[in-house]
Write a structure and sequence with these properties.
10 helices, Beta Polymerase, domain 2, 7-stranded mixed beta sheet, about 15% strand, rod-shaped, homopentamer, alpha+beta, Methane Monooxygenase Hydroxylase, Chain G, domain 1, about 350 residues
Amino acid sequence: MPDILDKASNKAGLPPGSLVHIGEHAADKSRVSAFIYDQDQCSYHREMTVGEIASLVTAGKVSWINVSGVHDTELIREMGNVFGLHHLLLEDIMHTGQRPKVEEYEETLFIVFKMLTFDPGQDSVQEEQVSLVLGKDWVLSFQEKEGDVFDPVRERISRAKGRIRRMGSDYLTYALVDAVVDHYFGVLEKIGDKIEDLQDEVLERPSKNIMQTIHKSKQELIFVRHSIWPLRDALNQVVRGEFEQITEQVSVYFRDVLDHTRQVLDAVDTFRDMLGATLEIYLSSLSHHMNQVMKVLTIIATLFIPLTFIVGIYGMNFAYMPELSWRYGYLAVWGVMLALAGGMIYAFKRQRWF
Amino acid sequence: MPDILDKASNKAGLPPGSLVHIGEHAADKSRVSAFIYDQDQCSYHREMTVGEIASLVTAGKVSWINVSGVHDTELIREMGNVFGLHHLLLEDIMHTGQRPKVEEYEETLFIVFKMLTFDPGQDSVQEEQVSLVLGKDWVLSFQEKEGDVFDPVRERISRAKGRIRRMGSDYLTYALVDAVVDHYFGVLEKIGDKIEDLQDEVLERPSKNIMQTIHKSKQELIFVRHSIWPLRDALNQVVRGEFEQITEQVSVYFRDVLDHTRQVLDAVDTFRDMLGATLEIYLSSLSHHMNQVMKVLTIIATLFIPLTFIVGIYGMNFAYMPELSWRYGYLAVWGVMLALAGGMIYAFKRQRWF
Amino acid sequence: MPDILDKASNKAGLPPGSLVHIGEHAADKSRVSAFIYDQDQCSYHREMTVGEIASLVTAGKVSWINVSGVHDTELIREMGNVFGLHHLLLEDIMHTGQRPKVEEYEETLFIVFKMLTFDPGQDSVQEEQVSLVLGKDWVLSFQEKEGDVFDPVRERISRAKGRIRRMGSDYLTYALVDAVVDHYFGVLEKIGDKIEDLQDEVLERPSKNIMQTIHKSKQELIFVRHSIWPLRDALNQVVRGEFEQITEQVSVYFRDVLDHTRQVLDAVDTFRDMLGATLEIYLSSLSHHMNQVMKVLTIIATLFIPLTFIVGIYGMNFAYMPELSWRYGYLAVWGVMLALAGGMIYAFKRQRWF
Amino acid sequence: MPDILDKASNKAGLPPGSLVHIGEHAADKSRVSAFIYDQDQCSYHREMTVGEIASLVTAGKVSWINVSGVHDTELIREMGNVFGLHHLLLEDIMHTGQRPKVEEYEETLFIVFKMLTFDPGQDSVQEEQVSLVLGKDWVLSFQEKEGDVFDPVRERISRAKGRIRRMGSDYLTYALVDAVVDHYFGVLEKIGDKIEDLQDEVLERPSKNIMQTIHKSKQELIFVRHSIWPLRDALNQVVRGEFEQITEQVSVYFRDVLDHTRQVLDAVDTFRDMLGATLEIYLSSLSHHMNQVMKVLTIIATLFIPLTFIVGIYGMNFAYMPELSWRYGYLAVWGVMLALAGGMIYAFKRQRWF
Amino acid sequence: MPDILDKASNKAGLPPGSLVHIGEHAADKSRVSAFIYDQDQCSYHREMTVGEIASLVTAGKVSWINVSGVHDTELIREMGNVFGLHHLLLEDIMHTGQRPKVEEYEETLFIVFKMLTFDPGQDSVQEEQVSLVLGKDWVLSFQEKEGDVFDPVRERISRAKGRIRRMGSDYLTYALVDAVVDHYFGVLEKIGDKIEDLQDEVLERPSKNIMQTIHKSKQELIFVRHSIWPLRDALNQVVRGEFEQITEQVSVYFRDVLDHTRQVLDAVDTFRDMLGATLEIYLSSLSHHMNQVMKVLTIIATLFIPLTFIVGIYGMNFAYMPELSWRYGYLAVWGVMLALAGGMIYAFKRQRWF
């Protein structure tokens, strides 16, 4: 989360709506691509300029313009001009530390949320901001980098699978949100696997830095929860019918996504409980182990201390110590000591001390 | 809960409303059965095809069609066509990781919730998703497997017990929900017995892995709570009269079920408190025991250490040690040591150290 | 709370509204008594049959019919017929595991709540379900057993004290609720006394099973809270004027009872805080005591171990050990040892180790 | 808080509105005094009877009648008759365990809240119930004892400072509430001083019963919070304009008091956090100290135990022990022991054990 | 927070609206400066008197009057007269312990909030109260001291950057709030750096008073949260459109600030979680370290105690001890001791004791 801070503090003092990219600087060039489709036809255009885009958008067809890379100020500004976007909206697109939200700017609906992916290399969850702008006939989507989870949507459009080609831009918006939320499940599954591994490790042979691993996983869950929680509220607004841009027919689908979001958050909570239990069991087994060691060692010490005292007695050099000259004195001492040790062991056992 | 994740991630990328069964794959064939009844007559039909079902449903009579097994895509799709069900509704029926909810799809009311059973073999609670669809004259019920808790309802219908034969499809819906909620009590009773056994074990002779047993019970309670909690909200919506499909006359009965749901949740909370207390008492008794052991052992050690020092003194080989040649030196040392030991024991007792 | 479960699971599968008594089976016969009064007259009738009751109720007078013992199915059914009560209402009366609630059944208002009494013999709080049904001219009250807290109300009616004889059936309802809530204060006072005794014990000489006593008190408070908390919500509904059966004039009195309920709940919270503090102080004093013991014992051991080493040196049997033959060798060793012991004690004191 | 219980349980069974004083019995006689003022004139009357008061109240002037001592049933009843007060209102005045609240009784507005004072003698916060009744032209104030925080208000009235003489009875009500709330700041300041002393003590030389002092302070804060929290809600009702007795012009002033109440509650929360931190630091420093002691002592013991073993070896009396007869055997043993001790100290240091 | 108390208690008893400065007494003279601008022109005036200010304010232009230093009662009173401000508003300006809030006083809107700055010298966050009064054509800003975060706004006005010169006084208000909120990010970044340093220190070589440093940071976060949290609610009121002084066009900008406030609070929560984890890891590593030390030391002691016992045996002076005269007795004892030590070490290793 300190990310947000780094990002934001660079910008303090600029007038609002200043188009400055705030986020990791992607080396790649921003790329613009477009799907233009209706029930009968569908065309796909890659590596377009904004001018070309503007000429493609046709009333009566749905246009999905996707921008990968939001660091190109000029491009964003042009998009804003062509589609008549509010400058605060443009600022939010370029400033990649937004909380998920749905906002209305006059005619258009603006949805910001987080695409989560699991990076196996770093063994951690990566976050990427996705902004959707829903107009009458078009949907704009902005991503931080190339690579996304929208391929199934692209395929459904180009192959006319499902009902996407028969529906309007609001359904497309739904399909994009749905694709991202569906991907949350896969990410959580990965986190779940890690937590189950942790649980096994705790019960068998915990490594030295397991505490830190547990805390890291906890931080990760908090991070995921922070990324998703506000989306639930935002989708709730959509489902309650607060925005006219979403028709009632599509609202049912958003209710479905909202449901999935709730399931994801339930799973996050469950994982948090599991982590908590893992930590408790770890600490408890640690303290149990420690107690066992100390107890056994202390019992050994306690057994020998009185015996050592006894042998000390007959090591004294007094001139007059009758026992020393007894014929079976030495044997008698051994007898006394064995009886004492046996008695103590018996007493300890009776008290269930080991 | 990771179940949900396994289930959902398999489906990511499919268009919404894709009828793919998500859940444990039941080996059994899906079976369809139907009750058709009014106040005077009642007929029961087993092992029907969807076509036969369609011909049976008669206006003026109540039809209850029960489907056991939701993995047969074709069957579900046909049911959807015959009864005019929304494809998202069908998807929810087949996707068995739903949170309990009540949703309206145009004319029909869709209720999803969990049937809980206690499996004595596995010594754990099993969950099965039940979906009800309430239309004007009919109720559809979908279960994951053969075997349910609806037999009392079947008996009341066939024997015309109570008022079920005189009432409409909304009352039948109530009766089915009520049967499931009533069964929750039995499941909780089983869990309660286990917790009471745990409490007894803690106070007597706790086994080594009692911590894990306690945590397992806690997880189980959380699981049960997760299954029931959203049902309370859903029933609340029904009782507030948000849905026209439930007449006011039957709404009173739903208020009764809602009440039972609250009682179940109260019991879950009580059990959680009891488990918490059990854990605390266990940890406290553990630490008390440990403390006792350490204290007694340490006292023994402490008693003998000064004595050992004394006998060490007279084991020294100095040429000039006057005490050694005294007539009663040895006895005197014994006297000093006994006095010292007695004094220490007296002091420890006074300080209430044991 | 497992009570609820025992009770409810016996009933699973019966049609709703089945009149089966669920609760402890009282040996006593159910008894019915009635007060019939208006401003001028008042008559009291004991050991009535339901038929006699029916003939007594007169328009223009207030009738209070009290039933002690709810296990007599036939009696409850007859009452239901005479007063036209909904069968779910009758079921709730007989099923004694209800949560406190206020419900409207057409004309009548149904109030269920808990009468708490402190049983000095068992040293614990006893709960008894009280159900009130408020009709136009009559109030029915149902209790589980003979013996209640309504005597002051009876006296006020028969001696025409206060304004009860001048008011309607809603005021009588208030008076009965008020009598029960007033009694809560006495019960809490008893619990408070026990907690204060616990606090004293903790500070002085805690017995071995004080942990369990504390937990038992905590459970008791949770139990009391569970019994009263829903009543607050129910009374709130009454005060907000949701029910027409309560006139505005009497609503003011219910506001007063609601206030008392809040005070009781405040007291419960305060007691819980006190118990929590008691537990913390106990644990802290326990650990402090333990630490003290271990510290002193360890210091004693630490003092003597170097001394024992020294005397060990001069117990060695080397042929050439010059110190052994010194004239004042023995004295010198004593001197060294005393100096060492003194130095260590001084150092420990400086470090504030005891 | 058990106060409430003592108070309330004495009253169980009496008809509602019974005027029985419940609270500490003040020895003093109840005293009644009155201010009658308008913009031009102001008269002050002390030690009045209720009859005299009745004759003084004049339409067009504001009358403030203050009653110190609420144990005189007769007096309260007379006041009730003269000013037409509801008997439940009178009961609340005499029953001094009320939660702060604002209630409307027909024309009049009834405000109950707590006056807090810090008693330096007992080193604790004292609570006194203040009841205000606001009528059209008059304000009645009831206190438990002589002595209050209203002197500044009296002075402003008599010297015509500020705008109090130009405003109506609702402004006077505000002024009285404000005086009490302003005094909360002073009380909290005293508590704050105590907490800061505690913090210093913890960091320097904590006394033995500091745990109990911390818990006592925590109880005190909970007590203060309980006294003030409901007042916030009550004032909120006033500010939202729920009561017609408060004109919109004066409502702005109540918003100001509400603000102060929030500040007080913020301060209480801050103090609670501080106390919590103090406790944590204390416990942590305690355990740190203990650990240090045990570690050093154990290291000393561990150093000497092997050495004692070595000298034990050469104290054995075997006939054939070659080392004993070596010329420099004794020196060699010393050398070995010094080397061993040095090595152990070095190893411990390397492991950062001290 | 005790600040508030010091401040407030000095004022108890004064009539409301008394203009008494409460806060740190700034030595500086209060300074008044003014910007008067419209789209075409802009003039800046420093070190003005209130009279001069009054003559400058022109309808149709936006006037921003900034007052640095709120301790000059006379100045504040004059400002109040010139701009027609309510005396409670003036009181709040001078009393610098306000909670952030937005209040409406007839035509004007009053916004109070906190300017946070990080003082590197004291290594802590400093708070300064800023009050804004928004009238039709003017904005008044009051600060406690010279020096603020408004320079970027001043520059945008004088250089006509952005849209500030084209907009009204409500936009200026937004710009000032935005400048302060933007600065929060920088402050939090500093706190974040400190927390990250703490985390590193904990994992490497924690200093002795790290506990206190952690608690200090926690207090600081609570302080920051207290300063910002109420602002969120206040801005929420603005965004919901409760105040007519903010036009709908500017409301969109306030929504943006509200969003930033939420991000700041999210960051505060994240930092608190991080601090909590840091503390937990510290305590756990501390206890781990301690356990390790104790375990190793105890093992050493336990190893040597039986050996010391054995050498004690042969230090006894019995006349008849056959072993003593054996030829290889001494060697045999060494053998036994080595075997015993080896066996114990082996057993300890097998039990994973070290």
